[in-house]
């Protein structure tokens, strides 16, 4: 989830007061890493203040936090019309570092805040891609509650989830041991509940169809989403019925 303004606004002012060549040290001191939680407020500030040169340098960095910030910044640049940033985000979506992949999702969500139709176009394209981490990025990016307040975006999220779930179900069992497939499976374990909560009528109908599948990973995905309170709040009766389909 992209953080709110709060501290991010203060970080933006601090970054503007520093020459870009001093940003590296500023980030290193305040990144929150190593540790359980990276400083997303600072990452949001970097995303808003970074030039294309800084974003590109950070995105290519071996430093995981810098790369996260670079990916996040590409989302803002894409929102401002820098179309090559979409290709950069696509490449970063396949990064082996999970925080960098989160930066991609947050960057795309930044785009979705101002241009939801462009986000929808990108994630639909990515859902047709063959790479599981690209599928994971598409699902994670669009399954953000604040973006799904738009009915068209909510319905697009369901389309994306249908496509990437079908892609996972089509994989041979030996391919499912891949780390990228495992990351996709984990994301689908919560993304469906977010999308269904935003559009319960079509969402439950789609999830009910998947609950009838014999595929072990698909059934795990349905069960994981049934653990989410948001799904039961959206429609208690249908959630209970779904539970009976996938005990």
Write structural notes for this entry:
The chain is built from 15 helices and no strands. By secondary structure, the chain is mostly helical. The chain has 2 domains: 114 residues; 112 residues. α7 packs across α9 and α8 runs antiparallel to α9.
In short:
This protein has 247 residues and is an all-alpha fold. The chain is built from 15 helices and no strands. It starts with 6 loop residues before the first helix and ends with a helix.
What structural category characterises the helix and strand content? mainly alpha
Count every helix, treating DSSP H or I runs of 4 or more residues as helices: 15
Kindly report the average pLDDT value: 95
State the assembly state of the protein chains: single chain
Please describe the biggest sheet, giving its number of strands, its sense, and whether it closes into a barrel: none
The amount of beta strand, in percent, is: under 5%
Number of strands: 0
Measured distance between first and last alpha carbons: 30 Å
Low-confidence stretches: none
Shape: elongated
Please indicate the count of domains.
2
Global Rg: 19 Å
Helix content: over 70%
SSE order, one letter for each helix or strand: HHHHHHHHHHHHHHH
């Amino acid at each position: 989830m992209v953080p709110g303004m709060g501290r991010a606004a203060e970080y933006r002012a601090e970054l503007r007061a520093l020459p870009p060549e001093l940003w590296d040290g500023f980030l290193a001191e305040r990144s929150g890493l190593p540790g359980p939680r990276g400083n997303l407020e600072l990452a949001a500030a970097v995303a808003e203040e970074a030039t294309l040169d800084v974003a590109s340098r950070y995105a290519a960095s071996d430093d995981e936090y810098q790369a996260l910030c670079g990916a996040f910044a590409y989302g803002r640049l894409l929102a401002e019309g820098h179309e090559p940033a979409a290709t950069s985000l696509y490449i970063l979506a396949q990064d082996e570092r999970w925080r960098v992949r989160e930066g991609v999702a947050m960057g795309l969500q930044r785009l979705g805040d101002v241009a939801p139709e462009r986000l929808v176009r990108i994630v639909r394209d990515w859902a047709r891609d063959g790479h599981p981490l690209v599928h994971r990025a598409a699902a994670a990016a669009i399954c953000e509650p604040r973006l799904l307040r738009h009915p068209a975006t909510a319905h697009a999220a369901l389309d994306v989830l249908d496509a990437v779930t079908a892609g996972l179900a089509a994989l041979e069992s030996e391919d499912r041991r891949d780390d990228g497939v495992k990351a996709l499976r984990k994301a689908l374990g919560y993304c469906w509940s977010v999308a269904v909560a935003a559009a319960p009528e079509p969402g439950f109908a789609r999830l009910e169809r998947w609950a009838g599948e014999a595929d072990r990973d698909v059934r795990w995905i349905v069960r994981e989403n049934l653990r989410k309170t948001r799904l039961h709040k959206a429609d208690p009766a249908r959630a209970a019925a779904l539970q009976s389909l996938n005990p």
